[in-house]
Amino acid sequence: MKPKVAQSQQEQGILIGLSAVIVSVQSHEPKVFIVRGAEHALSAGVHPTNEEGDALPFGPFEPDKHTTLELGLRSWVKSQTPLNPGYVEQLYTFGNRGRYAGQAAESSRVVSIGYLALTQPEQTRITDKVFWGDWYSYFPWEDWREGRPKIISDVVELGLKRWANSAETRDEKANRRMRADLCFGLDDIPWDEEKVLERYELLYEARLVYESIRDKGIKVDYVLVPGRSMLYDHRRILATAMGRLRGKLKYRPVVFELVPPEFTLLHLQKTVEAIVGHTLHKQNFRRLVEGSGMVEEIPGKKSAEAGGRPAALFRFRRDVVFERPAPGVKLSPAS
Protein backbone atom coordinates (compact mmCIF):
# COMPACT_ATOMS: atom_id res chain seq x y z
CA MET A 1 0.00 0.00 0.00
CA LYS A 2 1.46 3.36 -1.05
CA PRO A 3 1.90 6.11 1.56
CA LYS A 4 -0.86 8.70 1.44
CA VAL A 5 1.58 11.52 0.73
CA ALA A 6 3.11 9.75 -2.27
CA GLN A 7 -0.33 8.81 -3.55
CA SER A 8 -1.50 12.39 -3.21
CA GLN A 9 1.51 13.68 -5.13
CA GLN A 10 0.96 11.11 -7.85
CA GLU A 11 -2.70 12.07 -8.25
CA GLN A 12 -1.96 15.76 -8.11
CA GLY A 13 0.91 15.83 -10.62
CA ILE A 14 3.11 18.76 -11.55
CA LEU A 15 2.98 20.62 -14.84
CA ILE A 16 5.95 22.77 -15.88
CA GLY A 17 5.19 25.93 -17.80
CA LEU A 18 7.79 28.01 -19.63
CA SER A 19 7.34 31.79 -19.95
CA ALA A 20 9.51 34.22 -21.90
CA VAL A 21 10.03 37.90 -21.13
CA ILE A 22 11.45 39.10 -24.45
CA VAL A 23 12.80 42.64 -24.14
CA SER A 24 13.81 45.16 -26.78
CA VAL A 25 14.41 48.92 -26.68
CA GLN A 26 12.84 50.79 -29.59
CA SER A 27 13.04 54.56 -30.05
CA HIS A 28 14.42 54.78 -26.50
CA GLU A 29 11.40 52.95 -25.04
CA PRO A 30 11.61 49.50 -23.41
CA LYS A 31 9.29 46.94 -24.97
CA VAL A 32 8.17 43.43 -24.04
CA PHE A 33 6.70 41.01 -26.55
CA ILE A 34 3.04 40.23 -25.89
CA VAL A 35 0.68 37.54 -27.14
CA ARG A 36 -3.08 37.94 -26.84
CA GLY A 37 -5.38 35.14 -25.84
CA ALA A 38 -4.64 32.02 -23.81
CA GLU A 39 -5.09 29.19 -26.31
CA HIS A 40 -1.41 28.35 -26.18
CA ALA A 41 -1.65 27.58 -22.45
CA LEU A 42 -4.49 25.07 -22.59
CA SER A 43 -2.22 22.08 -23.10
CA ALA A 44 -0.48 22.96 -19.84
CA GLY A 45 -3.69 22.30 -17.96
CA VAL A 46 -4.37 25.95 -17.24
CA HIS A 47 -7.79 27.28 -18.08
CA PRO A 48 -7.96 30.91 -19.22
CA THR A 49 -10.10 33.43 -17.45
CA ASN A 50 -13.16 34.85 -19.20
CA GLU A 51 -11.08 37.77 -20.43
CA GLU A 52 -8.70 37.85 -23.35
CA GLY A 53 -5.74 39.79 -22.08
CA ASP A 54 -2.03 40.32 -22.52
CA ALA A 55 0.28 37.40 -21.86
CA LEU A 56 3.91 36.48 -22.32
CA PRO A 57 4.89 33.80 -24.82
CA PHE A 58 4.19 30.64 -22.86
CA GLY A 59 3.83 26.89 -23.16
CA PRO A 60 4.34 23.60 -21.30
CA PHE A 61 7.62 21.74 -21.06
CA GLU A 62 7.19 18.49 -23.00
CA PRO A 63 9.96 16.01 -22.06
CA ASP A 64 9.33 13.84 -25.09
CA LYS A 65 9.85 16.79 -27.45
CA HIS A 66 12.15 19.17 -25.57
CA THR A 67 15.74 18.12 -24.88
CA THR A 68 16.21 20.93 -22.35
CA LEU A 69 14.04 23.55 -20.67
CA GLU A 70 15.63 26.35 -22.70
CA LEU A 71 15.07 24.52 -25.98
CA GLY A 72 11.47 24.00 -24.95
CA LEU A 73 11.13 27.71 -24.30
CA ARG A 74 12.72 28.59 -27.66
CA SER A 75 10.33 26.19 -29.37
CA TRP A 76 7.30 27.97 -27.89
CA VAL A 77 8.75 31.40 -28.71
CA LYS A 78 9.31 30.30 -32.31
CA SER A 79 5.74 28.99 -32.64
CA GLN A 80 4.07 32.05 -31.07
CA THR A 81 6.23 34.97 -32.19
CA PRO A 82 8.23 36.09 -35.24
CA LEU A 83 11.32 36.43 -33.04
CA ASN A 84 14.51 34.42 -32.53
CA PRO A 85 16.18 36.01 -29.49
CA GLY A 86 19.86 35.47 -28.89
CA TYR A 87 20.53 36.15 -25.20
CA VAL A 88 18.36 33.99 -22.91
CA GLU A 89 18.72 33.33 -19.18
CA GLN A 90 16.55 31.62 -16.61
CA LEU A 91 14.91 34.07 -14.22
CA TYR A 92 13.00 32.33 -11.45
CA THR A 93 10.72 29.40 -10.71
CA PHE A 94 7.20 30.28 -9.55
CA GLY A 95 5.51 27.40 -7.74
CA ASN A 96 3.09 28.79 -5.13
CA ARG A 97 -0.43 27.44 -5.30
CA GLY A 98 -3.15 29.88 -6.32
CA ARG A 99 -0.83 32.43 -7.94
CA TYR A 100 -3.57 33.40 -10.36
CA ALA A 101 -7.24 32.86 -11.11
CA GLY A 102 -8.03 29.39 -12.42
CA GLN A 103 -5.00 27.65 -10.95
CA ALA A 104 -6.16 26.96 -7.41
CA ALA A 105 -8.93 24.61 -8.52
CA GLU A 106 -6.71 22.61 -10.87
CA SER A 107 -5.89 19.01 -9.99
CA SER A 108 -2.32 19.57 -11.18
CA ARG A 109 0.09 22.09 -9.73
CA VAL A 110 1.53 24.40 -12.37
CA VAL A 111 5.16 25.40 -11.81
CA SER A 112 6.18 28.30 -14.06
CA ILE A 113 9.80 28.87 -15.04
CA GLY A 114 10.41 32.39 -16.28
CA TYR A 115 13.13 33.35 -18.74
CA LEU A 116 14.59 36.69 -19.75
CA ALA A 117 15.46 37.12 -23.43
CA LEU A 118 17.06 40.19 -24.99
CA THR A 119 16.93 41.18 -28.63
CA GLN A 120 17.86 44.19 -30.72
CA PRO A 121 15.25 46.31 -32.48
CA GLU A 122 14.15 44.66 -35.68
CA GLN A 123 11.30 44.77 -38.13
CA THR A 124 8.75 42.22 -36.99
CA ARG A 125 5.30 41.43 -38.27
CA ILE A 126 2.84 42.42 -35.56
CA THR A 127 -0.93 42.08 -35.30
CA ASP A 128 -3.53 42.69 -32.63
CA LYS A 129 -2.59 39.23 -31.30
CA VAL A 130 1.20 39.49 -31.23
CA PHE A 131 2.92 42.82 -30.64
CA TRP A 132 5.48 44.80 -28.69
CA GLY A 133 4.00 46.25 -25.50
CA ASP A 134 5.43 49.22 -23.62
CA TRP A 135 6.58 47.75 -20.32
CA TYR A 136 5.85 51.02 -18.50
CA SER A 137 2.21 50.64 -19.51
CA TYR A 138 2.20 47.63 -17.14
CA PHE A 139 4.28 49.41 -14.47
CA PRO A 140 3.72 53.18 -14.86
CA TRP A 141 5.10 53.89 -11.38
CA GLU A 142 8.53 52.58 -12.48
CA ASP A 143 9.29 55.32 -15.04
CA TRP A 144 11.15 58.20 -13.34
CA ARG A 145 12.80 59.64 -16.45
CA GLU A 146 10.71 62.80 -16.14
CA GLY A 147 10.82 62.88 -12.36
CA ARG A 148 8.75 61.20 -9.68
CA PRO A 149 5.59 59.81 -11.33
CA LYS A 150 2.39 61.55 -10.18
CA ILE A 151 0.74 58.16 -9.93
CA ILE A 152 2.77 57.48 -6.76
CA SER A 153 1.44 60.46 -4.79
CA ASP A 154 -2.00 60.53 -6.43
CA VAL A 155 -2.90 56.83 -6.17
CA VAL A 156 -0.20 54.52 -4.81
CA GLU A 157 0.62 56.41 -1.61
CA LEU A 158 -3.04 56.99 -0.74
CA GLY A 159 -3.92 53.35 -1.40
CA LEU A 160 -1.06 52.03 0.69
CA LYS A 161 -1.92 54.38 3.58
CA ARG A 162 -5.49 53.08 3.54
CA TRP A 163 -4.23 49.51 3.49
CA ALA A 164 -1.79 50.15 6.35
CA ASN A 165 -4.47 51.80 8.48
CA SER A 166 -6.77 48.80 7.95
CA ALA A 167 -4.40 46.50 9.83
CA GLU A 168 -5.81 45.06 13.03
CA THR A 169 -2.85 45.73 15.31
CA ARG A 170 -0.51 48.66 15.89
CA ASP A 171 2.55 46.53 15.07
CA GLU A 172 1.06 45.38 11.78
CA LYS A 173 0.16 48.96 10.85
CA ALA A 174 3.76 50.02 11.50
CA ASN A 175 5.09 47.08 9.53
CA ARG A 176 2.89 47.89 6.54
CA ARG A 177 3.89 51.55 6.59
CA MET A 178 7.58 50.63 6.75
CA ARG A 179 7.25 48.24 3.78
CA ALA A 180 5.44 50.91 1.75
CA ASP A 181 8.13 53.49 2.57
CA LEU A 182 10.97 51.13 1.64
CA CYS A 183 9.41 49.91 -1.59
CA PHE A 184 8.15 53.22 -2.97
CA GLY A 185 10.71 55.64 -1.55
CA LEU A 186 8.23 57.39 0.72
CA ASP A 187 9.15 59.57 3.69
CA ASP A 188 12.48 60.64 2.08
CA ILE A 189 13.70 57.06 1.61
CA PRO A 190 15.75 56.73 -1.63
CA TRP A 191 14.09 54.99 -4.58
CA ASP A 192 15.65 51.62 -5.43
CA GLU A 193 15.05 50.86 -9.11
CA GLU A 194 15.73 47.14 -8.61
CA LYS A 195 12.76 46.56 -6.25
CA VAL A 196 10.28 46.12 -9.12
CA LEU A 197 8.99 42.74 -7.92
CA GLU A 198 8.77 43.86 -4.28
CA ARG A 199 6.65 46.85 -5.31
CA TYR A 200 4.30 44.76 -7.41
CA GLU A 201 3.95 42.14 -4.66
CA LEU A 202 3.13 44.86 -2.13
CA LEU A 203 0.43 46.33 -4.39
CA TYR A 204 -0.91 42.82 -4.98
CA GLU A 205 -1.07 42.10 -1.24
CA ALA A 206 -2.77 45.47 -0.64
CA ARG A 207 -5.27 44.59 -3.40
CA LEU A 208 -4.41 47.68 -5.38
CA VAL A 209 -3.77 45.99 -8.75
CA TYR A 210 -6.38 44.31 -10.90
CA GLU A 211 -4.84 40.82 -10.72
CA SER A 212 -5.22 40.71 -6.94
CA ILE A 213 -8.97 41.28 -6.95
CA ARG A 214 -9.39 39.08 -10.02
CA ASP A 215 -7.58 36.18 -8.39
CA LYS A 216 -9.51 36.61 -5.13
CA GLY A 217 -12.82 36.98 -6.96
CA ILE A 218 -13.76 40.14 -5.09
CA LYS A 219 -15.04 43.63 -5.88
CA VAL A 220 -13.74 46.83 -4.33
CA ASP A 221 -15.10 50.35 -4.03
CA TYR A 222 -11.78 52.18 -4.20
CA VAL A 223 -9.49 53.21 -7.07
CA LEU A 224 -6.97 50.63 -8.25
CA VAL A 225 -3.48 51.66 -9.28
CA PRO A 226 -3.48 52.28 -13.06
CA GLY A 227 -1.51 49.91 -15.25
CA ARG A 228 -2.28 47.27 -17.86
CA SER A 229 -2.99 43.88 -16.33
CA MET A 230 -1.83 40.52 -17.67
CA LEU A 231 -3.24 37.02 -17.69
CA TYR A 232 -2.18 34.45 -15.10
CA ASP A 233 0.79 35.70 -13.07
CA HIS A 234 2.62 37.09 -16.08
CA ARG A 235 2.86 40.63 -14.70
CA ARG A 236 4.66 39.13 -11.69
CA ILE A 237 7.08 37.37 -14.04
CA LEU A 238 7.59 40.60 -16.00
CA ALA A 239 8.34 42.47 -12.75
CA THR A 240 10.96 39.85 -11.90
CA ALA A 241 12.60 40.32 -15.29
CA MET A 242 12.63 44.11 -14.99
CA GLY A 243 14.34 44.01 -11.60
CA ARG A 244 16.85 41.40 -12.78
CA LEU A 245 17.77 43.36 -15.89
CA ARG A 246 18.11 46.64 -13.99
CA GLY A 247 20.47 45.00 -11.54
CA LYS A 248 22.42 43.08 -14.14
CA LEU A 249 23.24 46.21 -16.14
CA LYS A 250 25.55 47.24 -13.30
CA TYR A 251 27.81 44.19 -13.44
CA ARG A 252 27.38 42.53 -16.85
CA PRO A 253 27.51 44.11 -20.34
CA VAL A 254 23.98 42.94 -21.23
CA VAL A 255 22.99 46.40 -22.52
CA PHE A 256 24.92 45.63 -25.70
CA GLU A 257 22.39 42.92 -26.51
CA LEU A 258 19.85 45.75 -26.85
CA VAL A 259 21.74 48.12 -29.17
CA PRO A 260 22.88 47.69 -32.77
CA PRO A 261 26.49 46.68 -33.50
CA GLU A 262 27.39 50.34 -34.12
CA PHE A 263 25.99 53.03 -31.83
CA THR A 264 26.63 56.47 -30.44
CA LEU A 265 27.24 57.00 -26.75
CA LEU A 266 24.03 59.03 -26.56
CA HIS A 267 22.06 56.10 -27.99
CA LEU A 268 23.71 53.78 -25.47
CA GLN A 269 22.84 56.17 -22.62
CA LYS A 270 19.20 56.47 -23.73
CA THR A 271 18.97 52.67 -23.86
CA VAL A 272 20.28 52.34 -20.30
CA GLU A 273 17.94 55.11 -19.09
CA ALA A 274 14.97 53.37 -20.72
CA ILE A 275 15.69 50.18 -18.77
CA VAL A 276 16.56 51.66 -15.36
CA GLY A 277 13.76 54.23 -15.52
CA HIS A 278 15.68 57.39 -14.67
CA THR A 279 18.04 59.81 -16.42
CA LEU A 280 21.80 59.66 -16.07
CA HIS A 281 24.46 62.35 -15.85
CA LYS A 282 25.68 62.65 -19.45
CA GLN A 283 29.32 63.59 -18.83
CA ASN A 284 29.77 61.02 -16.06
CA PHE A 285 28.17 58.31 -18.20
CA ARG A 286 30.44 59.02 -21.17
CA ARG A 287 33.53 59.13 -18.99
CA LEU A 288 32.69 55.88 -17.20
CA VAL A 289 31.80 54.00 -20.40
CA GLU A 290 34.85 55.16 -22.33
CA GLY A 291 37.11 54.48 -19.35
CA SER A 292 35.67 51.02 -18.74
CA GLY A 293 37.19 49.48 -21.84
CA MET A 294 33.77 48.13 -22.88
CA VAL A 295 33.56 50.21 -26.06
CA GLU A 296 35.90 51.35 -28.77
CA GLU A 297 35.45 54.15 -31.27
CA ILE A 298 35.15 53.13 -34.92
CA PRO A 299 37.76 55.17 -36.83
CA GLY A 300 36.35 57.52 -39.43
CA LYS A 301 32.67 56.68 -38.84
CA LYS A 302 30.10 59.24 -37.73
CA SER A 303 26.36 59.26 -37.24
CA ALA A 304 24.17 62.34 -37.52
CA GLU A 305 21.94 62.41 -34.45
CA ALA A 306 18.64 64.26 -34.59
CA GLY A 307 19.10 67.97 -34.01
CA GLY A 308 22.84 67.73 -33.48
CA ARG A 309 26.18 67.50 -35.21
CA PRO A 310 27.63 64.15 -36.39
CA ALA A 311 28.62 61.95 -33.46
CA ALA A 312 31.31 59.28 -33.20
CA LEU A 313 30.21 55.68 -33.62
CA PHE A 314 31.32 53.02 -31.16
CA ARG A 315 31.14 49.25 -30.89
CA PHE A 316 31.25 46.80 -28.01
CA ARG A 317 34.60 45.25 -27.14
CA ARG A 318 33.69 41.63 -26.44
CA ASP A 319 37.17 40.90 -25.05
CA VAL A 320 36.26 42.97 -21.99
CA VAL A 321 34.43 39.98 -20.50
CA PHE A 322 37.78 38.17 -20.28
CA GLU A 323 39.68 41.20 -19.00
CA ARG A 324 37.44 42.16 -16.07
CA PRO A 325 35.41 40.06 -13.64
CA ALA A 326 32.30 42.29 -13.61
CA PRO A 327 32.12 44.70 -16.57
CA GLY A 328 28.92 46.69 -16.33
CA VAL A 329 27.50 50.17 -16.64
CA LYS A 330 27.87 52.33 -13.53
CA LEU A 331 24.72 54.37 -13.02
CA SER A 332 25.22 58.01 -12.06
CA PRO A 333 21.83 59.76 -11.76
CA ALA A 334 21.41 63.12 -13.47
CA SER A 335 20.51 64.79 -10.18
Structure overview:
By secondary structure, the chain is α+β, with helices and mostly antiparallel strands. The protein has 3 domains: 4-135, Nucleoside Triphosphate Pyrophosphohydrolase; 140-226, no CATH class; 251-323, Winged helix-like DNA-binding domain superfamily/Winged helix DNA-binding domain (Arc Repressor Mutant, subunit A), CATH 1.10.10. Helix content is 34%, strand content 20%. It has 11 helices and 9 strands. It has helices at 4-12, 69-80, 135-138, 150-165, 170-184, 196-205, 210-216, 234-248, 265-276, 282-292, 320-323; strands at residues 14-26, 29-36, 54-55, 58-60, 87-94, 109-118, 130-134, 295-304, 310-316. Strands 1, 2, 3, 4, 5, 6 and 7 form a 7-stranded mixed β-sheet that branches. Helix 4 (150-165) packs antiparallel against helix 5. The chain is globular and about 65 Å long. The N and C termini lie far apart (69 Å).
Radius of gyration: 22 Å
CATH architecture call of the largest domain: Alpha-Beta Complex
Number of DSSP strand runs: 9
**Shape label:** globular
